[in-house]
Amino acid sequence: MLVFSCYFLFYALTPFFGGDQLGLVGADEPRYAQIAREMLAAHSQDCHAVNARIMPHSLRLRDLRASYACLTGGTVTPILNGKPWLEKPALYYWRTMGFYKEFGVADWSARLPSATGALALVILSFLHLRRFRPGGHLDAALIMVSCVAIVAFARGASTDMQLAAPFCMGMLGWYAWYETGKKFWLFDLYFFNAAATLAKGPVAPFMALGIIMLFLGLRREWSALRRTIWIPGVLLYLLMVLPWYIAVQRRNPTFVYQFFLQHNIERYTTNLYQHHQPFYFYLLVLILGMMPWTALALRALFDGLQISMAEWKVRHNPGRYIGHVRAGDAFPEFLVLWALFPIVFFSFSGSKLPGYILPAIPPIAILTGDYIFRVRRDGMPNWLLNAHAVMAGSLTFVLLLCPQYMVYQRIVPAPRIFVWAAVLGILVAVLILIVTRRFGAQHIRLITILPVAGLLFFLLHGANGHLLDLNYSARPLARQIAQSVPATEPVAQLNVHRDLVYGLGFYRNQDIVDYKLDGIPAAEHILVFPTNQTQQVQGLLRGRIYQPLDIYASQGLSVYQVYPRS
Asked: Are 17 and 143 in a shared domain?
C-alpha cells in the first residue's frame, strides 16, 4: 500500500510514470531549472576545454589542477542568463544537473530532485517509526504521502523539499540518539542538516538548534545539549558545507552580502521581496496543506500539546520529578515543538511563502498517525470522524471545480457541474463514514487516500492536465513560437508577468529581452505582450514592420514577429 501511494508522488511527473502533462509554472520552477541547465553547460564546456588541453593519465601538477578545475567548473556558482545567481545554495542545482545528464534537459527531470526527496522522506520516516514507534508508522507515512503540502512540493522544481526532507530525517535521527544514546544516530543529525544547509542555507541548523534547545530546556536536560555537540559530527557537517561556501565566496566577493544579508536576514526582517502576508497566514497554510487530513491533524496536534503539558506538570512536581530522570513519553512533546517552531518563527517574518513551513508538515503527520493508532481501540469520536469526512468531501468538491476555474478564471453558474461535484463530494464523505464505522479506524487511511489518488489523476491527466498547462505554464506558448520561427530567434516581452518570462527563458533556452529595460532590439525578434496593450505596442513599433503570429487567448497574450530596421 505504501509503494502504491508513493507512486502518486511521481504520477504525471515523468513520461514513464503516467505522462508529462503540466509544464513548469510560477517564477521559481523555470528559473531554478534554467540555472541548473546553465551550470551543466558551463561544467561541460570547462571539462571539454581541459580534456582537449591535457594528456590522459597525466601526473603533472598543472594538469592535476586543471582536472580539479574541470570537476568544480560550473558547479560552484549558480548562473542565470550568464550571470551569478546567489539567492540559494547549490544542492538543488547539483541534483538537477545529475538528472539532466541521465534523462536530458526537460521540465519533468527538473522536478525529480523534489519527487525523489519526498520519496526518501516518506520511506525513511516509515522505517524509522516502524523501529522506534511501531503502530502508527504506516498511517503517518500514508498521511505524509497524500496531504496537499507534500504532494504539491514533491512536484515542484524548487528548493523547499530539498530543505524539508533532509531536515526532517536529521531531526528523527537526533531523537533516536536521545532515546538510545547510540552515537551512530547523531550522524543523521549532522549529515542531513549539512544537506539542508546546502539546499537553503543557515535556516536549517538554526531551526534544528532552536527545536532541540526548546525541547531539552523544557525537560531540564541541558547535559544532552552538550552531548549533542559531537566532534565527529561537527567535522562531518563542516566538511560537507564549507567547501562550497568558501569556493563560491572566493569566486563571488559579493556572496556574503547577497546571500546572508539580503536573502536571509533582510528577507526575514523586511518585505524586500514583496511577499508580505498577515500574521495568521501560516495557520491558513497549515489548514490547506494538511488537507484532507486537517481535522485529524489539528486534533492530533492538540492532543500532543495536552500530553506535553501533562508531562511538563509531572516534571515540575517536586514529589514526582527529581533531577534529570525522564518522566513519561517525550516523543509527542518533541514532535509538537518541532511542528510549532517553524510556524511561529516564520509568522514573524516580513516575507512569507507557503514553503517556509514545509518542515512542520512531517511531525504533524507523525502525530496524526500515532493518534489514529491510539484511538483504534476505543473508536474515533463521532464528531472527529464527521469533521474528517466533511474535509475530504470538501476537497473533492473544490478540486472537481478546478477545470471550470481554469477555463473561465472564475467560478461561473453551471448547475450540472456543481451538482456532479457536490454528489461526488458527498459520496466520498459518506464512504469514509460507512467504512470507518463498519470496519474500524484503521481503514480510514485507505478510504481517504483513494479519493486523493483519483483527484490527482483527474487533475493531471488528459484534458484537465492540458488545461492546467495551457493556463499556467509558458510551455504551450513556447511551442507555438517554435512552430512559427526558428528556435534561435530572440524573444522580447513587454509587461508580461515574470512567471511567463522565466518560463519562456527556460523553454527557449535564451534570455528574454525586456522592452522597458533593454529597449527595442534593432534585429528581427519575437515580441510577447498582453493583448489589451496592443495599441501601446503598435505605437512603440511605429516605423517598424511587424506581423501578428498568434493570440494566446488562454493567458491574454499576443505574439508579434518584428522585422529588422530597414
From this structure: yes
Residue type for position 89 = P
| Cα distance between residue 203 and residue 214, in whole Å | 16
Closest CA to 346 of 297, 425, 281, 401: 281
Residues 136 and 213 in one domain: yes
Q: Which helix (H) or strand (E) holds 494?
A: none
Contact 28, 107 (CB under 8 A): no
Gap between the Cα atoms of 225 and 205, Å rounded: 14
- Please name the residue that has the C-alpha cell 571539454: 48
Q: Please tell me what DSSP assigns to residue 134.
A: T
Q: What are phi and psi of 30, to 5 degrees?
A: -65, -30
CB 150 within 8 A of CB 361: yes
Residue at a domain's end among 345, 369, 393? 369
The span from the CA of 549 to the CA of 559, in Å, is 5
491 pairs with which residues across the strands?
Answer: 526
The pLDDT value recorded for residue 314 is 75
Do 6 and 75 fall within a single domain? yes
Whether residue 266 is contained in a domain is answered as yes
In a domain, 376, yes or no: no
Cα torsion 334, 336, 341, 346 to 10°: value is: 150
Q: What is the pLDDT of residue 325?
A: 42
Q: How many domains does the chain have?
A: 3
Predicted pLDDT of residue 90: 93
Residues with Cβ within 8 Å of 106's Cβ and at least 6 positions away in sequence, in order, are 20
- Within this chain, do residues 327 and 390 fall inside the same structural domain, yes or no? no
User: Do 80 and 142 lie in a common domain?
Assistant: yes
Asked, for residue 340, whether it belongs to a domain, the answer is yes
261 is a domain residue: yes
State how far the Cα of 216 lies from the Cα of 229, in Å rounded to an integer. Answer: 13
- pLDDT for 61 equals 44
Q: What average pLDDT values come out for the chain (566 residues) when binned by 10 residues?
A: 55 53 89 95 71 53 46 78 92 95 91 91 93 90 92 91 96 94 92 96 95 92 91 95 95 91 83 80 95 95 90 67 53 95 94 93 96 85 93 91 68 70 92 90 87 83 79 90 82 93 94 92 92 91 88 86 84
CB 480 within 8 Å of CB 552: yes
DSSP type of residue 564: P
The residue from 369, 396, 424 where one domain ends is 369
pTM of the predicted protein model: 0.90
Domain carrying residue 437 = 381-470
Strands 525-530 and 557-562: antiparallel
Distance, CA of 45 to CA of 175 (rounded, Å): 45
Is the same domain home to 130 and 175?
yes
Helix axis angle for 107-132 and 28-53, nearest 10°, is: 100
464 and 358 inside one domain: no
